[in-house]
Task: structure prediction
Amino acid sequence: MVARKFLVRHDDSTFAVDYDTDDGFEIFQFQLFSLTSIPPEEQKIVGEDNDRIVSDDSDLAAVSDKLRLVSITAEEERKPEKQEETTSSTAGAGKLDAGTSVMSDEELARMLQAEEEALLLQQHVAYENSEKFEEKIRPYVSQVLMYEDPVRQEAARKTVPVDNLEEKALVSLAKEGNFKPSKIEQDHAFLLQLLFWFKRSFSWVHEPPCDGCGNETTGQGMGNALPSEIQYGATRVELYRCNSCSRITRFPRYNDPLKLVETRKGRCGEWANCFTLYCRAFGYESRLVLDFTDHVWTECYSEVLGRWMHLDPCEAIYDRPLLYEKGWEKKLNYVTAIAKDGVYDVAKRYTRKWHEVLSRRTITTESSLASVLASMTKECRRNYTSQVLSVLEERDNIEREALERDLRSTDDASISLPGRQSGDKQWRIARSEFGTDSLSSSSCPVRICRDEHVSRIYNAFSAILHKFVEDSLIVSKGVEVLKIFRATVVDLKKLPYKKRRASLKSNSIVGTSLVHQLLPSFSELLNALSLKSELDTNGIVSVCLAGDPVKTALALPVALHALDELIRDLSKCNNLTKDSLLSFPLLRLNRICTGAVLASGEELPFGIATAAFDGTRMSKWEEPNGARGIMNKEHTYSFPVITQ
Result:
């Protein structure tokens, strides 16, 4: 092991970085990442003395202790405009999504040639008659109209913990430094929380458990639907025999989302059907998306993004349309979005191999397909006003241009997408949708996370512990005081985020007088939590909101984690002295409270880092499905790992 200290200059700042050669150059890059928020792939590290570019361990060993760090992206932006002439073929293409780049002229020519060949082949194998295609789509045109029913929408809304999801949405924005989000930003964040909640609240059915004893069952084929099942659109009923008691369990494949709100179980058809109702119930413009290779999901129009966004409720994945082609390795053909205002061919959104998709579209020709979609869309819009029609037609044109533009782009090869997660493993393998569970560190996108509040909370505990020392409080009583405050934090956390109020409850070990005596030392912590204490005429101390409830919602989990750690460390302490406080990791000042994290591969792309990364806890962030990432030591990030 060789330890070196580097002085790294970036913009107007200079950082002292301790480097252990056993860690490797990659960890050194992540140290710089934690200090400057420049991801490793965008870092350009140069020796100050000789301008030597540092790209591996041997380079680090050969340069002086003074380095300069620049962002490749920022450096590119400062280049003269005339250098952009090399990409003139992309002019007018519009804005591409993050993680995409435009094809080279050679790549584009090859792709156009392949498309032309696929279209010629289609003329020989596809039918001019589009009846088969229309027969497949027509039932869904009627089905999506159920999402507009006020009774069904109200039934869906009643099952949603709206306050809880609203709090999570606002906290997710606050974690990214946005404490004053616009209405459309709030709506976008709420939609994502609705997706995560739905994933947790709906159940996947492979072989349903026995209705009688709850044991495993084996499929026995199909049965005749009962009138009570047909009432909710279940024309197909699967039968399963219990492996223990031989009882037959019925699994009706309900199509009415009202019934699915009640049963809350099914496969992808039921999941997408029900979730799309939930989206409409909260006012989102929504589509049911039918993949002819046997999958269904949802699209919602995002005002924030200014475009349609892919959401898969089975996977709790959003805005990753290449998930199926790239992650599940599906051989797509027709992907059709059905909404109250039309039927749309959106296959181009879900592929970067259009010529291959074209070769598999053999139900009807492209011209016949376009004709039947236009006819069905016209039928859906027959009662719309001219003003509404004008708006829809403009949006249609924008979407068509975007689909063509995205088709001509190349996705970021460093981002690998997971195989299918929903459903029995053998079932997924049999459907060739298992993909791969092997995800490289480069496949995990960076999430920016601002946690300045963490330092305020942790530093506030110093005043409390020093008060314990000043009053010669024995360790057991100190632990009990912290437990009382922890119980209050737990009570506050359970309450609606706009109406938080709980009392500090003394006990046989810590009396009311001691609580009152120590209360002033908690004022800094309460302030960091946007809370305040109030004393009523009966001598009962209550803790309630003192400011922005979102700041409190953001801070309470951090305080709870800190209290757990402090109670554990204090319980191990024999004598409470000023010197003993120095051994508490919580009170150290070398914590990272601002920076960026790598989202876990399990929850790509995704979600929002929800736990503060503060330099003391092992688990540094948590994704909506429970996957976590870690840091292997203070100031150095390790690659994401999954814990079940």
